[in-house]
């Protein structure tokens, strides 16, 4: 099966969101990656519900929403309302992760968990069978355009082994510093889905760049 490509709208032109959403609609991308930052869990603020609802109005592909926020439970219902298909919370932000996962699923969304670069894969052992997706962060979350952290490759391999050992059905997604070179190595290691922000939107032909990633 070909790799799932999820362009990150964090790197789009916010004065031309509809144009960039249409570009993704008409490209080989599979999902829209939507990064929500609260200025507390991460040292940056991105955008909130009205912007996601506006994206969803035009998006013809599932919204893959990555929330870098504290206390995610209080907003789960609202994320469902604005059209989220997959909701990914941070392991480091959830005291009762199992409960949060059930809450996400109870609102009809797929449930994902993101791991910061310092968080060990083995911590997911007791919850992996409840998950639809694991997002391995290959940068410290908060900003687009950062340098890829090499350790992510080995984490993909370890996660793949854990998924096989536990006979789980989980998508492995990687986020941060993805380009054709890092993307190829991630796919080889076992990644099922790649997020790409600046590599897509800073290129001269974003739709072609998405197609190049899709061909990995
Ligand atoms: C970082 C975000 C990423 C970001 C990736 O906190 O979660 O999704 O948009 O951007 P690039 O692909 O430029 O590293
Ligand atoms: Zn992200």
Report on the structure:
The protein has 216 residues and is an alpha/beta fold. The chain is globular and about 45 Å long. It starts with a strand and ends with a helix. It has one domain: Alpha-Beta Barrel (TIM Barrel). It is built from eight helices and eight strands, in the order βαβαβαβαββαβαβαα. Bound molecules: D-xylitol-5-phosphate and zinc ion (ZN). Residues 8, 10-11, 33, 35, 66, 139, 141-146, 175-178, 195-199 line the site of D-xylitol-5-phosphate (DX5).
Which properties best describe this structure?
20% strand, single chain, globular, binds D-xylitol-5-phosphate, 216 residues, binds zinc ion, eight-stranded parallel beta sheet, alpha/beta, TIM Barrel
Radius of gyration: 16 Å
User: What CATH architecture label applies?
Assistant: Alpha-Beta Barrel
Count of separate structural domains: 1
Q: What does the overall shape look like?
A: globular
Bin the helical content: 25-40%
CATH fold descriptor: TIM Barrel
How do the strands of the widest beta sheet line up side by side? 1-8-7-6-5-4-3-2
User: What is the subunit arrangement here?
Assistant: single chain
Number of strands: 8
CATH superfamily: Aldolase class I
Distinct small molecules? D-xylitol-5-phosphate, zinc ion
